[in-house]
């Protein structure tokens, strides 16, 4: 088993009955995940604003540790090299 870090964003809109959550990209190290947190929060706020949400919102991101089998990580790396992913690596840090 290999440790993989997954970046999860939680979004709260006042007056909304639920917390929205979105998962973004997997990282092989905690440091890689942590470097994307602020960029991801800014990206989410910009996207929600473009969608027309002018109300207040609260965004928090967390790096969650997960276990993966070596073949899963190999497939993930192959897809990432082909450009298949959620695009969080293009957010900049």
Characterization of this structure:
- The chain has 2 helices and 3 strands.
- It has 93 residues and is of the alpha+beta class.
Which helices and strands occur, and which strands form pairs?
Layout: E1 2-12, E2 20-27, H1 30-50, E3 58-68, H2 70-81
- Order of strands in the sheet with most strands: 2-1-3
Portion of residues in helices?
A: 25-40%
Q: What count of helical segments does DSSP give?
A: 2
Tell me the domain tally. 1
* Biggest β-sheet strands, sense, barrel: 3 strands, antiparallel
Category from helices, strands and their pairing: alpha+beta
Order of helices and strands: EEHEH
Counted beta strands:
3
Give the overall pLDDT as a whole number. 79
N-to-C terminal Cα separation, in Å?
29 Å
Low-confidence stretches: none
Beta-strand proportion: 25-35%
Query: What form results from the Cα inertia axes?
Result: elongated
Rg over CA atoms, rounded to whole Å, is 15 Å
Quick take:
With 93 residues, the protein is of the alpha+beta class. It is 35% helix and 32% strand. It has a 3-stranded antiparallel beta sheet.
């Amino acid at each position: 088993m290999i440790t993989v870090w997954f970046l999860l964003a939680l979004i709260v809109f006042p007056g909304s009955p639920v917390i929205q959550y979105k998962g973004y990209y997997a990282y092989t190290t905690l440091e890689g995940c942590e470097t994307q947190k602020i960029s991801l929060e800014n990206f989410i706020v910009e996207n929600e604003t473009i969608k027309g949400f002018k109300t207040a919102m609260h965004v928090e991101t967390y790096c969650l540790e997960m276990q993966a089998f070596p073949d899963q990580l190999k497939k993930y790396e192959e897809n990432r090299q082909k450009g298949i992913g959620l695009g969080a690596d293009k957010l900049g840090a």
